[in-house]
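A protein record pairs a chain with a discrete description of its three-dimensional fold. The shape at a given residue is found from the number at the same position. Here is what such a record looks like in full:
>
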Amino acid sequence: MEKPLIISNTTPLINFAEIGCLDVLQGLFGSLVIPPAVRAELTEKSSLFPKAAQVPSLPFIELAAPEDRLLVKSLASRLHPGEAECLALAMEHPGSLLLLDDLAAREFATSNGLLFTGTLGCLAEAKQRGLITAIKPLIDELRIRARFWISDRLVERVLRDAAE
């Protein structure tokens, strides 16, 4: 049986890179897989997110392309290219975990029985495992440095669940 993959879309990588916390992702998962479209998106956004542009060259990041190009093309009609390739890759590797923040991609993952979490889920897990001591300062950094929009209501819920 093949080992499940941890497949990351662009936004979680930008978020963790821009706040200087890629080590948290490595601590949680060991290694991450990104498809070629995510690598391209990170490169394309290098002027906005210079730290994230370095992600594909990190030793714990592996590149893997989905084989089913028709599935990718079909998904890309509704989603960004990176999300389409991530979802297709997860469908080809049952039991894999997706790192996704985009609502449409999460809805597709849910409707297809794919496992996923996002930036805030990773932070909550990192706190639970003792990899970080507090979530609130990192959320503040995400909003400023990564320009990550998070509703106040969601922040309140995450902080309440994490006893902060």
About this structure: The mean pLDDT is 95.
